[in-house]
Amino acid sequence: MMKTGTHTRRLRRHALGAASLMVLAGGMMAAPAWAQVPPNQAAQDTSADPATVQTPAPPPEQVDEGATRDIIVTGSRITTGGFTAPTPTTVIGEEQIAANAQPNVFTTVAQLPSLQGSTGTATNTFSTSSGQQGLSSFSLRGVGAIRTLTLLDGQRVVGANVTGVPDISLFPQLLIKRVDVVNGGASASYGSDAVGGVVNFITDTRFKGIKGNIQGGVTTYGDDQQVLIQLAGGTSLLNDTVHVIASTEYAHEDGVGGGDFGINLANGRDWFRQSTLINRNVLNDGSPQYLFRDYAQSYNYTKYGLITAGPLQGIAFDQSGNPFQFQYGSNGVPARDAAGNVRGCLPGFCQGGDLSGNVDAGRSLQSKIQRVNSYGRIGYDFAPNGEIYGTINIGQVKTNNQPVGGQNRPNLTIQCANPYVPALVKAQCATAGITNFQYGTSNAALGNTQVYTDRRQFRFVAGAKGRESVAGSDWSYDMYFEHGTNYTDVDVSNIMLSRRFNQAINATTLNGAIVCADATARANGCQPLNIFGGNPSAAAISYIMPQYGPYQRTRQTQDVISLNFSGSPFSSWAGPVSIAFGGEFRHEFYRVRADPYGAGFANTPANANYPADPALLADGNNWYAGNYKNGSGAYSVKEAFVEADLPIINSDAGGRANINGAVRVTDYSTSGTVWAWKIGGTWDLPVDGLRIRGVTSRDVRAPNLSELFAAPVTTTLPGFFDPFRNVNVLALQNTIGNVNLTPEIARNTTLGIAFSNSQAIPGLSLSVDYYKIKITDVISSLGAQDIVNLCYLNIAPETCGVFNLNNPNGPNFINVQSFNLASILTDGFDIEASYRWRNPLGLPGSLTLRALATNIRRFITDTGLPNTIPNDTAGVNIGNTPKWKWLAVQTYATDDWSLLLQERWFSDGKLGNQYIECTTGCPASTANRPTIDNNFIPGAFYFDVGGTYNVTKAVTAYFKVDNVFNRDPARSPYFVNPALYDVLGRVYRAGVRFNF
Q1: What are the CA-CA distances from residue 436 to residues 169, 317, 476 (Å)?
Q2: Average pLDDT in the 504-508 region?
Q3: What is the mean pLDDT of residues 447-474?
Q4: Distance CA 235, CA 363 (A)
Q5: Which of 490, 680, 853, 856 has the fewest C-beta atoms under 10 angstroms from its C-beta?
Q6: pLDDT at 597 over 80
């Protein structure tokens, strides 16, 4: 059961309070006309917000009756009229969000081809300890969510994880007017993390009326049942000077849990084949080193137990504990040697045979998720062009996943005298002259581990924005203070304490009763466990898997003060010169607490739920998985920026051109001062509608709280090699943060051309952009041996101060931490096109076509480690970066109904670009260029269809079917890749929207 406490009760009270702010206004609000924003152009905001500067009127087909068109340019701080940012920007409008009919707006945005490696409810489901289950966060260009800045109305949002990334599930989704995706670095404008780009959610701050949405959904397999209920209201008071809006929403998805052991996925999905990459460990015999095989069977364990080595190898046990001869795949025959080899099989695996013990099918395909969100905003126009406002956003997201089936233990030693050993097996022990045997089990009898995550966010913003005339020119100002707190609770249930398990399976007979063999363990409650078959006693289960499992309690806070000013104080020969400047202060803090069995008794004292036990390690790490640790840390950021836009050409013969530049200086309390800058421009050629643009920038990402102040973990390395003395030593590995980390530095370059001519070809917009990102000083983790070797070889002297392998004053140790050693290089193309045809072929309504594509030419990662070569993962389909990825949407809409067709596709790829594919006559396999028999991973094509019908002017019914052809994911040696492939199958959704 998920635990709830004081914070949850407080959240519910605040959520109800925020919902009570909703003021329901009478009168009909007309739905805004669909307006196609030209791709990668400055986004147009249709709200009548006095804080932004009006721009010249758009083409007639883009005007909303009664609305004033203002401009907000994501990726730039300049808000003056007529300004066009040189950074490519893709816009998703509220109509497109609604048409996609997803239970979370995150899913709609994440479909964009430039977003690669974003996380959601279908990712991180195989994890126990990451704390990222169900976390919805964006990754642009495949460089990771930590290098993509996500904003809400241009403002920072407190992180929902110690990596600093927010959870989109906590945003007020019904009030989102549009989403701007800036495909390029924006650190000079917005600060740290905007290396891959920016995703900015713009809300409707002037909404009037009542609107809502009720939606349900289910997969073709009858699971992941979904419900979404959203309601928003807004009004104005006191002669339209006070504006109040509020929204609340509830969403629930059942998720898709794990299937049975073997290859049986949940609810009849039949695409899983237990594909495995098998290492032959033979490098130069003319055959490939690695073999890609389906239906792989590990011969080191079975569902209810298997003797894995020695004279009795091959004896398995059924659920009742009865022995039988195990069926090896590949016609394998146990060698019955001490190494546990199986003749006729590959190292570690056979193919086919009895697959019932395999655990991978037990993994959740999608986390169960429930989210509750309430949002309120009140603004007061204290002047015709000035507003003060306050917002409150309170949300909660609960998720649940099953990481894997059972709790696999493949390398156990069982005594033949154990009273639970069947008599037949005891007799065979005696005949063979052995006293123990090697044993492996999936531990299916123990059930499956469950991970519950509860995130609660409280975010408050107070600000002022508007325009004032200074020295004869208009200046915009935007200032705000934000305080956010995020609580994350992780609870794990049905998981073993490994040392108690080891004590419980070591049973003996005492005074006619079966007991634990260790007297100290008996004195502390040990109950013997029958590990043969599937019928352990309730007392044994309670002992090895107590009621209270691992937990982690994290509190994060973020405080931001931001001031920004923008205006056009003078003009050049080509037009007004625009300037923006400002500053920001930010403070980030986190603290995490864990249970004493995981973190250690010295860090978290024993209590009634976690009593002291001499059988457990005092330093923690006692759980099978989920050994969370304690930690804390904080840092502060002070920064200032200036940005300018200089028109340089403005004539009929030369067209219109501008140069845009910015510089930002940032001081981090942990790493000192760093500079970011950008320089670029646009040129509207004399050919009507043709624009050339380009920008290059220096962007930064500061180390996050986790990298700086990671909760420490200590493990023992009994035979660690000391290259300085050429001996093996006993050492302690301390996994910690590194407060000496410095910011990553990126160089971002984008060059492109765009076409949009409303006169020559009305409704057509095209753009092509080339991008290149080079990130140096990338923060990356190193292993203990790598750290010592880098110092020994004098390759990275900074590692020399973090270990001591000849310590006369205490134990030898290596502090395993991250360093600024690696680099990333990626480049490619973005292509975007849209066309809107009014009254096609004389028919009523309009046809809209839109397509977006991203090509990744290279994605090269260099670890910085000796004896390694850079690895290019472009086109590697077990990752996030296929060579090509595109999204196409066709919509036909009339006044009464609409039909949407959508295609999602990515190209065929490889398992890894480092492999040499061959079947015979293979060259020698090396660590950098290994050989493999099959290096192909197919791409995928998904087709979606949806539609709407206007029941009345205010009520619309709709439907959506995703993955119409029920396309299965490709086989993978790593179970499945949910970052690229659809793992759920066909999904049906339907609902009703209303807007009064």
Answers
A1: 53, 17, 80
A2: 96
A3: 94
A4: 47
A5: 853
A6: yes
- Residue 116 and residue 879: Cα distance in Å, rounded? 9
Q: How many CA atoms lie within 13 A of 811 on its CB side?
A: 14
Does pLDDT of 15 surpass 90? no
Tell me how far apart the alpha carbons of residues 52 and 31 are, in angstroms, rounded to a whole number: 23
Q: How far apart are CA 141 and CA 88, in angstroms?
A: 13
Q: How do residues 835-884 score in pLDDT, each as one tens digit?
A: 999 998 889 999 999 999 999 999 999 988 888 899 999 999 999 999 99
Which is nearest to 350 in space by CA: 265, 274, 259, 263?
A: 274
Nearest CA to 235 among 214, 213, 211, 202? 211
3-state secondary structure of 533: coil
Contact yes or no for 217/225 (Cβ under 8 A)? yes
Looking at the predicted structure, is the pLDDT value of residue 10 above 70? no
Q: Strand (E) positions, 574-651?
A: 575-594, 631-651
- Tell me the per-residue pLDDT of 142-163, one tens digit each, with 9 for 90 and over: 999 999 999 999 999 999 999 8
Distances (CA, A) of 506 to 125, 301, 379, 418: 33, 18, 69, 7
Kindly tell me if the per-residue pLDDT of 39 is higher than 50. Answer: no
718 within 8 A of 785, measured Cβ to Cβ: no
DSSP state of 834: E
The string of DSSP letters for 523-569 reads: HTT------SSS---HHHHHHHS-SS--EEEEEEEEEEEEEEEEEEE
The pLDDT of residue 762 is above 90: no
d(CA 575, CA 557): 44
pLDDT of residue 763: 87
- Is residue 18 over pLDDT 60? no
Q: CA nearest 390: which of 153, 585, 170, 210?
A: 153
Strands 727-735 and 813-816: parallel
In one-letter notation, the amino acid at residue 130 is S
Residue entry with tokens 């642009």: 140
d(CA 749, CA 696) in angstroms, rounded, equals 4
- Per residue, the 3-state secondary structure of 31-42, as one string, reads CCCCCCCCCCCC
Distance CA 916, CA 251 (A): 47
Report which residue type is found at 845.
G
**Residue 825 DSSP label:** E
472's CB contacts (< 8 A; 6+ apart) are none
* pLDDT, averaged across the chain: 89
- Residues 136-143: what's their mean pLDDT? 94
Per-residue confidence (pLDDT) for residue 56, from 0 to 100? 29
Tokens for 19?
């919902």
Question: Given the structure tokens 């206004």, which residue do they identify?
Answer: 25
* Residue 83 confidence (pLDDT): 63
In sequence order, what are the beta bridge partners of 335? none
* pLDDT exceeds 50 at position 975: yes
The one-letter code for the residue type at 941 is: F
Name the token pair of 751.
């060059």
Question: CA 894, CA 843: separation in Å to the nearest integer?
Answer: 9
Q: How buried is residue 926: exposed, middle or buried, by Cβ count under 10 Å (0-12/13-18/19+)?
A: middle
CB of 505 within 8 A of CB of 412? yes
The H or E element that residue 189 is part of is helix 187-190
Q: Say if CB 165 and CB 146 are below 8 A apart.
A: yes
Q: What are phi and psi of 222, to 5 degrees?
A: 80, 15
Output the furthest CA–CA distance in the chain (Å, rounded).
105
Q: How far apart are CA 900 and CA 895, in angstroms?
A: 15
The residues, ordered by sequence, that sit 6+ positions from 410 with a Cβ below 8 Å of its Cβ are 298, 300, 301, 308, 440, 441
- How is residue 406 written in tokens? 């059972």
Closest CA to 813 of 740, 730, 739, 738: 730
Task: Kindly compute the dihedral angle of the four CA atoms of residues 66, 70, 74, 78, in this order, to the nearest 10 degrees.
Answer: -170
Q: Are 674 and 743 in contact (CB under 8 A)?
A: yes
